[in-house]
């Protein structure tokens, strides 16, 4: 089971002590009081849980960056994305447009087998 040690109160230790702690595995230094490195802890949590954020883009609108669809890094195809939204979406699926690091050009037209990357934007085109 993966774990992360969130070592708090790093604002109250010396640099030498911080360097010693830095050699520990699965460690993330934070200061909750001063809000130091909370973003680093959040990134490490995403990495350890092996999750992927996929953003939706309704036709004719801007992407919705507020409410991503969360997929496991092991199951992150366009088909997995469609099943996560609604079980009948795959039946109506024609193709998808993808923006992001998994696309060769922006947007790229892809099928159900396409593997998505973290923070990709997907627009599903349904059959008429």
From TrEMBL:
What keyword terms does UniProt attach to this protein?
A: GTP-binding, Nucleotide-binding
The chain positions of domain TGS read 50-126
Q: Which InterPro entries match?
A: Beta-grasp_dom_sf (IPR012675), DRG (IPR045001), G_OBG (IPR031167), GTP-binding_2 (IPR031662), P-loop_NTPase (IPR027417), TGS (IPR004095), TGS-like (IPR012676)
Residue stretches making up the OBG-type G domain? 1-50
A Pfam match is TGS
Q: What is this protein called?
A: Developmentally-regulated G-protein 3
* Source species: Stylosanthes scabra
Provide the organism lineage as a comma list: Eukaryota, Viridiplantae, Streptophyta, Embryophyta, Tracheophyta
């Amino acid at each position: 089971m993966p774990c992360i040690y969130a070592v708090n109160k790093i604002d109250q230790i010396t640099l030498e002590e911080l360097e010693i702690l830095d050699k520990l595995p699965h460690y993330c230094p934070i200061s909750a009081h001063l809000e130091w490195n909370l973003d680093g802890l959040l990134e490490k949590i995403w990495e350890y849980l092996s999750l992927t954020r996929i953003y939706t883009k309704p036709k004719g609108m801007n992407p919705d960056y507020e409410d991503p669809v969360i997929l496991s890094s092991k199951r992150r195809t366009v088909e997995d994305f469609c099943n996560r939204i609604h079980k009948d979406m795959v039946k109506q699926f024609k193709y998808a447009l993808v923006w992001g690091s998994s696309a060769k050009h922006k947007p790229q037209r892809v099928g159900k087998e396409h593997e998505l990357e973290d923070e990709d934007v997907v627009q599903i085109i349904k059959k008429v």
